[in-house]
Amino acid sequence: MAHPFLEASIPELVAKLSVKEKISLLSGPNWWNTNAIPRLGIPSVRMSDGPNGVRGSSHFVQTPAQCFPSATALASTFDPDIIHQAGVYLAQEAKAKSSVVLLAPTCNIQRTPLGGRVFECFSEDPHLSGVLAAAYISGLQSEGVAATIKHFVGNDQEHERTAAESVMTDRTLREIYLYPFMLAQKLAQPSALMTAYGRIKGVHCSENKFLLEDILRREWGFKGLIISDWFGTYGTDQPINAGLDLEMPGPPRWRTSTLILHCLSSQKLLHSTIDDRVSNLLVFLQKQARRNPEVVFGDGVERSSQSPVLRKFCRRLAAEGIVLLKNRDKMLPLSDQSASTIAVIGPNVKGQIISGGGSAALKPTYVVTPWQGIKEALHDNSTVHYHVGCYAHKYLPTLETFLKTPAGDPGWRCTFFTHDANGNMDKPLESFTLTDTRVKLNDFLPDGLSNTWSIKLEGQLSVTSTGIYELGLTVAGRAKLYVNGELTIDNWTKQTPGDFFYGQGTIEEKAAVHLSAEQSANILVVYTNTNPPDGQDSNAEGRLSQPALMKGVRLGGCPKIDEQQEIENAASLAKIVDSVIVVVGLGPEWESEGFDRPSLHLPGRQDELIQKISSVNPNTLVCIQAGSPIEMPWLGSVAAVLQTWYLGNELGHAIADVIFGACNPSGRLPLTFPHHIEDTPAFLDSHSENGKIHYREHLFVGYKHYQARNIVPLFPFGYGISYTEFGLSELMVSASADTSDANSVQVEVVVQVRNVGSFTGSQVVQLYTKLPEIGLSTPQLQLKSFAKTPQIHAGSSVDLRLVLDKYAFSFWDEVKGNWKIPAGVHTIYVGTNSADLPLNGNVEFPRFLTWSGL
User: Fold this and answer.
1) Is pTM beyond 0.90 here?
2) The CATH number of 4-296 is which of 3.50.50.60, 3.10.20.30, 3.10.50.40, 3.20.20.300?
3) Top-level class of domain 726-851
4) CATH architecture classification, 400-559
5) Which pathway is this protein engaged in (predicted)?
6) Catalytic positions, please?
7) Tens digits of per-residue pLDDT, 621-667?
8) E strands, 7-84, in order
C-alpha cells in the first residue's frame, strides 16, 4: 500500500502544519537527516557525504564504502559518459546506505593549486567543470538520488573560508565561478544546491538574495532545495528571506523556535516566507520519497556494496583517469622482458592513499595498494623488491590494523562516561568497538550523556618488529595517552593549535617509546569534550579555549627511522635492478577541507629520494598520488611519470594496469601544472587579507593566465600522452542553425583522428574559441567543447563530432547585465591540449546577439 505522503497535496500539508512544526522542518534534527512530522506522515530523509563515495551517516562507526576516484581523476578522463555511469553507481551506493541525497558534486574552480579542496573539484576550467558536473548529476538522478551541487559560490580556497569575501568583477563571477553551476543547471537540473561558507559582494552566500533568488531561482529557473553548508548559516531572518531552505546540521543554532518566533513577531520574517521555505522542502521530500519509497520508508540500515561489477567498473574508471606525463625511450609499458627485476620504492607503496581528507574521506570496503597491484600483475614472473625510502606523512599513520580490543577483537574499545556534578568522570554509559584510530564524535553521541563527558579508548598494540616507535596524539577536546599504564602524551593540560578536524584541534603531540614484537602494549586514551581552562593553552588568541563545533581524537604511530640511511639503502637497491617504480605523493593529511597546502613541494624528503634513485638507475618511473600539481625538480632525470591522483579502492590495480600495458593511458590534465608556485595566477592573492580574497587575476585562471603572460608551464592544461600516437586532420566547421538568433546557435565541428602508432588507444580532442576584438580584457583561448574517441586500433581512424552552442562565442556584458555574442569572426582551434592546437576554422556572426537566463 502506498504511503499517504506520496500523493499528499503540498499546499494542504503546509496549511495543516503548526508554526512550530514548520520551524522544525527548516533545519535538521542531527548531522545527516531532515526532520519528520509523524502526525502528518511527513518522513525524514537521510543525506550522505560525497563526492568520491557514500560514507553513510556516521563518522564514529562508519559503514565501509566503495571509494571512487577523486574529482581531478574523474575529470582527467574527459569522458562525460563514464562520469555519468559513476553517478549511477554512486546512487546505488547511496540507497544501500539508506540515503537518497548525496552531498556532491563539488563544482568550485581550481583557482590555486594550493587550495585544500582542489582534489574534490573537477578543473580550473569552467566549461570542463560544468559539463562533467552535469554528467555526474544526471547519473545520480537517473537512479532517483538527489545531487547537491556545491559550494555556491566562490569557495575556492580554505583560508578563513567562513568569513572571507571573494572580491571579483561581475564578469569574472559570471564567466568563471558561476559558469559551471549554470551549465549544470542547464544540462542536468540538480535537485539540491549547497551554499558556500564565504561572502560575495560583502554578503554571506547563505543569506545572499542576489545569488539565491535573483540568479539561481529567477534567472536560471532552479526549482530544487537550497541547503547550507554545515555550520555555514550566520543568522536567522537573513538566510530565510534570501531563499535558504534548510539549515544544516541539526540541532539548529539559528532556526530555533525562540529565534524564529521572535523574528515573526517583529516582522523580520513573514509567515508567507516561512511557508515558501517549507513548501520547497516538502516538494523535495515528496519527490525523493516517490522515487525511493523503499529507502525513505525502509529500515534505515546502512549496507556496503562489494559487487564484482562495481569493482571492475571502478578499476577501469581509475585507470582511465591516470595521466602519462613522460615516457622517455618508451620505458612504459613494462614487460617481463624489459624488467625481470623491479624495485618498488616509496612511502606510498604499501599505503592506502585512496582519497583526500575532510568531507571526501570514508572507510573503504577494501583497498588494493600499489604493492598488491604490482605483485598481482606480475604473476611472480619477475623478482620484485620493496623499500620505504623515506616517510611522507604529516600525521603519524593510524594504528587500527595493529590493535585488538581487550576481548581480542580487531580494533579498540571505546567507552563513554558521564560526568558528575563536579565535572569528573562518573559512570560508564555505553561501549563500542572501533576499527579506526581516527575517532570523530561530531555526528554521534549515545543517549544519556551529561553536557560534559569523557571516553576511554583501550586496546592491545602489537607491532611486527622490536624497536623505537613514535606515537602521536591529536585532539579536538582534551586527551592523554597511556602506554602500559604510564602517561606518555599529555594533550590535555597545555595545547598548541593545529589544523586537525577542520582547524579546530591541536597539533600532533608526539613521544618515542620502545615496543616489542614479543609482547603487546596496553594502550589507553582518555578523552574529554571540554577545552583547557582559560589561560592554560598556548594560543595567544585563545582559540582552543572557545567551544569547538568538532570533537574527536586521533592516535598514530610508526617505527622511527634514520631517513638519510633509508634513502641510501633505497638507492643501493635501485642500482642493482632493471627498473624502479617510485610511489610518492600527498594524501588526506596534506590535501583536505579546512586548510590549504603550504607549498607545491612533495612533503618530507621525497624529492631527494627520487633524485637519488634516478641518479643510479635511468629506468625510473615515478607514480604521483596527489589531487593537485606538485613541483618536479627531478623531472629531467627520470624516465617516466604517471599522475595517478587519488584513485579509490582500486588504486593498486589501476596503476598496475597502466604500468604493464593492460590499459593504454588516455587521461589528460584538467588543470595546469606550473614549474613554480610563483607562476600561478593567484600567487599573490590566495589568502584572505582583512576579510577579503582579491581575485585580481580576473578571467585569467589556469591556462588562460599562462597564455596571456607567455609563461611556459611544466605541463599545460589538457596534456597527456599515450603508448601510441595520434594525428588530427580534415577539420570541418559548419553552422547548422541560424547564427542571427542566439537561442538557435549550433555550430558543428568534425575532425578526423587517426592512430598512427602501434598500440590500440583513445584520444581526447579539445576545442578552444577566440572572440573577435571586443575592447575588453579577454583570454586568448577558452575551452568550449571536447570529446573522447572510442578505442582506435593502430592504423585506423574515426571522425569525431563536437558541438558548440551560444555560450561558446559569448561574454558577460557588465554594463547591460546579460550575455552577448560579439559580431565578427570567431576563431575555432582544435588539438590535443591547450598548447597544441594545430587545426583552426572560423564562424562569423553578422551582428551582436544578447540574452538573459539560460
Assistant:
1) yes
2) 3.20.20.300
3) mainly beta
4) Sandwich (2.60)
5) Glycan metabolism; cellulose degradation
6) 229
7) 999 999 999 999 999 999 999 999 999 999 999 999 999 999 999 99
8) 47-49
